[in-house]
Amino acid sequence: MDRWRINKMDAGDAASSDTVYAASPRQLTTEEKQRLADDTRIVSEFKQEKLEREALKNWDLFYKRNTTKFFKDRHWTTREFTELSGAKVDDPEKLIVLEVGCGVGNFMFPLLNELANTYFYACDFSPRAVQFVKDNPLYDPEKCHVFQNDLTKESLRQHIEPNSVDIVTMIFVLSAIHPDKMVSALCNIHSILKPDGCVLIRDYGIYDHAMLRFSPGNKISDNFYVRQDGTRAYYFSNDKLSCIFHEAGFSESSNEYILRETVNIKEGIHAPRVFIQGKFTKTSAISPIDEWHQSYG
Prior knowledge:
Blueprint: H1 3-10, E1 15-16, E2 20-22, H2 30-38, H3 45-53, H4 55-66, H5 77-80, H6 82-85, E3 95-100, H7 108-114, E4 118-124, H8 127-135, E5 144-148, E6 165-171, H9 182-192, E7 193-204, H10 209-212, E8 219-221, E9 224-226, E10 232-234, H11 238-247, E11 250-264, E12 269-282, H12 288-296
Parallel strand pairs: 3-4, 3-6, 4-5, 6-7
Antiparallel strand pairs: 1-11, 2-11, 7-12, 8-9, 9-10, 11-12
């Protein structure tokens, strides 16, 4: 299967069957188990380092090629994440939301129309994606602020006050970060969340169809792969997701697999999709990174 089809299915651009929420990932067939066992060709260390250095460039090229036409607007978010719908209530205090990895605004702009009493921050790794958001006619500086940020090394506090955000959303974002840097990224998020604020996440789950379709030579490490365009994707188990959030100072409120079958009649594809969805709450006043700075900084 070529890159276009894999990425299109990553984007969810096809009809889906009924959704099943599960505590365990889907069961692999004997053929699928063998395919994973046979995939022993690891991307060379030289190429891995190059991919990490050029991560920003590769995502910027992605948005140069696809502009605003790749992803559909996400109208399912208040149904799946009821925490967001609380902003509909007539409350004197605005709900403050940060969308990490905003892309071209497919998550934020539908919610700006739906949730009147909400202020959005939004950031993305790609400067080009950020500019697309700013150029959108729906962009209103009175209701939202978008900025470029490398979550793994640039403090969100340059743009957002510490302990000021109610909800952070991460929709297919954490999977694009190198596994060694995921905890640092979550600690960065932890620093701007209010006490008892939460992260709402949906991402790729282990044994997703797209994971099993990678050809040999695209595996970087366990569950971590590179696409033909140089962008990368990690496929999470719920144990892995729980572990990294716990290490960054969060407690788990929910963490489950989403199982469904995507059907693309035109392409003749019946693809078992696996996503992971969770809610993690800030329970400690300071993150592990803050503790490190206080002890050694």
